[in-house]
Amino acid sequence: MVTGSARIRSGEEVRRLNGKQRMVIRKSATKKGGRTAPSPAAKSPAKRKKKKGAELKAHAAEILARLKKEYPDAHCELDFATPLQLLIATILSAQCTDKRVNIVTPELFQNFPDAESLSTAAPERLEELIKSTGFFRNKTKSLLGMSAALAERHGGNVPSTMEELVDLPGVGRKTANVVLGNAFGINEGVVVDTHVGRLAVRLGLTNETDPVKVEQALMPLFPREDWALLSHLLIFHGRRVCIARAPKCGDCVLEDICPSSRV
After folding, report:
1. Fold of the domain built from segment(s) 51-75+189-257
2. Per-residue pLDDT averaged across 155-171, rounded?
3. Which residues contact 206 (CB under 8 A, 6 or more apart)?
4. Which end of the chain is more exposed for a tag (fewer CB within 10 A), N or C?
């Protein structure tokens, strides 16, 4: 409680709350001359400065080198044995964790081992098998349409070109990139999921948030032969360290070159 005669020091204020006076202590946020003092976590101008051209490409190269060293076993975390299995698993992974998909797919693959059998599946049976992955009705339609198209147009085989893959029902560029990069070893583009998109911005690689634009920004910065691996590295890092709400900056191998570091 503060009386009317109490002395108010610099940086303090008295507020009247519910009829009572309470002292609120404010930490000084100014320096001499009235300028706002930087917080302890504020980055130096050199670290905050947006990189361009050769400097940005060198920044990207350093990120790639460090992540390769940190995650030498980075890989696709969806379980699959064939291109068709990976295509199915990737469709199911939309708005779902890889862990959950890997729980669902063994029984699914056992019941429907090829495109022809999947295309003739009863929708209700498919929905029952994949329900826990979420959005199961839409995913059922995608699986039925995709498998029917494979059976009719490609002899039941998954095609190995971007053009043919995105022409399949339920298959977009991201899914096609996953299949091409991991089932066929073809680096046609960069897979941009939520982790890759988030880290691309945090690491100062782009300001874009649209997945297609993020992909277009990343491809010129990294060697083509590393495009598929790049996605795995960023996803590994995003799941383990650069977490969306609480990034572990103190444990990050990129902390000293990351413009978003909180350390």
Report:
1. Endonuclease Iii, domain 2 (1.10.1670)
2. 98
3. 200, 213, 214, 217, 218
4. N
